[in-house]
Design brief:
Layout (H helix, E strand, L loop, with lengths): L31 H7 L1 E5 L2 H12 L4 E2 L2 H9 L12 E12 L9 E8 L6 H7 L4 E2 L2 H10 L1 E3 L2 E3 L1 E3 H6 L7 E6 H4 L5 E4 H6 L1 H7 L5 H8 L6 E4 L12 E7 L2 E4 L11 E6 L6
Parallel strand pairs: 8-9, 11-13
Antiparallel strand pairs: 1-14, 2-14, 3-4, 3-12, 4-9, 5-12, 6-7, 10-11, 12-13
Helix pairs in contact: 3-10
Length: 277
């Protein structure tokens, strides 16, 4: 049974203000060839307005490319594109919190969930805290794990790592649960080939293993033959659920919109929606 979050003064500031949520637009089924052919780049020097522009351009039936879609484009239909070698923010995000019911890890264990093509991170949630991290209540995180992500076209499923290691997920919108007990021992930063191919966060972020080998070869940094996989799991408190946008940047990184060390501009690969005037 689907449950509704309670309305209270304690959680009101964490919830949407009633305006349409960009991440809940109905996302079309579209081949990777069409995403590449119909897509265009939105670029701006101010990240949060660029995020709004990208979601507005995608509304109501377009899309912002997810991390798995960018990975696949870069090594298949777009392998000769210089544009795709740039950094791109994506419609993929990483949420962390406590799995109070033990649905994907031990009871009350810390958990990361990577969502592709959908999610809870919005510009407004990040503006509230001014640190690039969208904040959620524990109840909201519990509901997400128990019921899946509610979207206009139905529930968005959350898969286990074991599932996506062995099958290709055909739906463009899905989540992957990564127990922190697995992810925490993995290095944040450049990693070598063998570690990259087995890294649970890499697999979750790429949406599976199918294109990882070619992605590593295309993006490896000489002379060490490494690819970047940065995360924030070791420095954040899982007892306060939060989320962040993922970035394709010659590897996989999290985007800090605020800090001086972040990329000074933002790109999105967007298939524009057809507006009804």
């Amino acid at each position: 049974m689907s449950k509704q979050l309670p309305s209270s003064d304690l959680t009101k500031h964490l919830q949407w203000d009633g305006q349409p949520i960009p991440s809940q637009y109905v996302r079309p089924l579209m081949s990777i060839e069409d995403i590449f052919r119909k897509g265009s780049v939105i670029i701006a020097t101010t990240p949060l307005p660029a995020y709004r522009d990208a979601t507005n351009d995608a509304y109501p039936n377009g899309l912002i490319a997810s991390l798995p879609e960018l990975v696949e484009m870069q090594v298949t239909v777009g392998k000769d594109s210089n544009e795709l070698t740039n950094s791109f923010l994506t419609s993929s995000e990483e949420l962390i919190g406590i799995d109070t019911n033990g649905l994907f890890t031990r009871k009350n264990g810390p958990l990361a969930v990577v969502f592709h093509g959908a999610g809870l991170v919005t510009p407004d949630r990040m503006i509230i805290t001014s640190d690039s991290l969208a904040r959620f209540s524990q109840r909201e995180f519990d509901e997400l794990l128990y019921d899946g992500l509610e979207q206009k076209e139905g529930k968005i499923p959350i898969y286990t790592l074991n599932t996506i290691r062995h099958i290709k997920i055909l739906t463009p919108r899905f989540g992957v649960a990564v127990p922190y007990d697995i992810g925490k021992i993995k290095h944040s930063g450049p990693i070598v080939h063998s570690a990259f191919m087995k890294n649970p966060l890499v697999i979750a972020r790429a949406g599976g293993r199918e294109f990882l080998e070619r992605y590593f070869e295309k993006n490896k940094i000489q002379p060490d033959n490494t690819v970047i996989n940065e995360h924030f799991l070791e420095i954040e408190d899982f007892r306060s659920p939060k989320g962040v946008i993922l970035e394709s940047n010659g590897g996989f990184t999290v985007r800090n919109f605020i800090s001086a060390g972040s990329t000074p501009f933002s790109r999105y690969w967007v298939v524009r929606g057809e507006k009804n005037d």
